[in-house]
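Chain A, query sequence.
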Amino acid sequence: MRIAIFDYQVVRNNPIGGCHLRVLRSLAAEHDFTVFAVQFENPHPERIEWVRIPAPLRPLPLLFLAYHLLAPVIYALYRLRSRKQFDVVQMVESNLSFGTIAYTHFCHTSYLKNYWGETQAKGFRGFSRWLDHRLHACLERRIYRVTKQVLVPSRGLARELAKEFPPVSNKVRVLPNAVDVDALRRPASFDRDGFRTALGIAPSDIVFVFAALGHFERKGLPLLMEALSRLESQSAKLLVVGGTDDLVENYRSRAEAFHLGGRIFFAGMQSDVRPYLWAADAFALASTYETFSLVAFEAAAASLPLITPKLHGIEEIVRDGETGYIVTRLVEDLSFALNRFVKLPSAQRAEMGNRARLAAVKYDEPSFVNNWRKFYSDWVAGTTLTDIPASSAHSVGTV
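Chain A, predicted structure.
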């Protein structure tokens, strides 16, 4: 089958791009893929063709507009030159004006309507994010109406799309994201105390790790910082992984306002988050909106209990008092949960982490690849889903 994939960045550190990379790496021998992207870490250059879209990656609204203008033109020129016909045109959300499959990890219309007011960033960054969401939202309804299939990573997002765009409910298929559960198991050789000491964290401290590429406001870092500031125990620490240099500096200043000196540590952007997960005692997230939250699943696979709201995707693995604590986005509730965890005996914290890992292992990469293989096979056979009730969403594999 000939498949055209349209995605801005098919690279490892991009949430959707990383999923596409896994598909391409594993199924390149089974299908003929052509990738139309701004950036692409091609896992099989001898098998997969990259057609570069010369769009700027920042700011995001400009990327959205440039990609919409350039991608159709370059696609048309490519088809004229190559005489190639595609069985599937696979796009990301509303990033393209045409396509047969929309691979969706976010509902921009719902986010602006229900969540933006709680998490809006200030200044140019905030305006840029709002404009990017608004541009996506303007096209969502039309694009989901014309596309033949919508793929989402969680049942929660499937429910949300069906509620926001009722005609979508008969097109949704759930393909959970992949978690590299084997690579996330902490090796016996890992020097946990030494790694902590290098960060300035004592071996006896109770460390909550927060990890995100960016969007710290939406992910709830300000709430976590305030909740931490209310804990009496000075052994409770917060390790923040991710964020651009300017964003990290901004939050260093905000940490001073909460008098968190010596209790919060910023690691910045890391190519490998695993050592930071292995060095922590629990994963904490106070996000207002998620559709799968890969980092939460990775934390669970690294045997970390989860302290998080019951969000899309996460709701499938977090069980209050068993794999972590379910919280609301109230500072008082977050502070209570953090304090509750700090007071647990170490054996109970470890057992909670073991249960979290057991909940995450079914989302391993082989299952992810097999789910995509089955989806493409069903597409070839003409058995794509077209009659799913709005109240439920069909899943490929176990969710």
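The chain has a mean pLDDT of 92. The radius of gyration is 21 Å.
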